[in-house]
Amino acid sequence: MRLLRLFDWILTRGISTVCGLLLAVMVGFTVYTVVMRTVFLDPPFWGDTLTLFANVWLVMLAFAMAVRTETNIAIESVYGILPARFTRVLRLLWLVLFAAVGAIMAIFGYQAADRILGAFWELGNMPKSYPMMILPIAGLLIFLAASLTIAEHVGVLERRGQGDDPQKQN
């Protein structure tokens, strides 16, 4: 279990860092494109495309983080008026559905990304399948996040606190 907890911590920190970097990249590309467009009247032809890719990757990775930290919207407002036992069942049901969505994204997302034809000329003829690989990557991460959280809910895995560092545990 300690190894699983360490894997969970490293993955959570890694995804969080990548999301922060993607946000910085989005802001940087947007500012650069706007300045080049308005001040120098010479916008880069690749700026909007890379900003869009960074945005899509950020959202997909953040969804996996939201599933793992259980900070998704789901039906949080309804939970306050339901009995605790029913709320636990609903939360578990949401996690099972998220795991199913993640599995579907991983399997069919890979097939879709692998089969897509063409290239982005503005990015040096980068194959269109490269940015599409976020589908299976995010799908796998969502599946893992939901599975780990389900394991915590059913008692197979000890519940973690926010920001737990497994290196500091006994």
Automatic annotation (TrEMBL):
An individual GO BP term: C4-dicarboxylate transport
Bilayer topology annotation: Multi-pass membrane protein
Transmembrane segment boundaries: 12-35, 50-68, 89-110, 130-151
Keywords, comma-separated and alphabetical: Cell inner membrane, Cell membrane, Membrane, Transmembrane, Transmembrane helix, Transport
Entry GO CC: plasma membrane
Subcellular location: Cell inner membrane
GO molecular function, one term: transmembrane transporter activity
Superkingdom to which the source organism belongs: Bacteria
Matching InterPro entries: DctQ, TRAP_DctQ
Domain Tripartite ATP-independent periplasmic transporters DctQ component intervals: 26-152
Role played: Part of the tripartite ATP-independent periplasmic (TRAP) transport system.
Family, per entry: Belongs to the TRAP transporter small permease family.
Subunit description: The complex comprises the extracytoplasmic solute receptor protein and the two transmembrane proteins.
Name of the protein this chain belongs to: TRAP transporter small permease protein
Taxonomic source organism: Oceanibacterium hippocampi
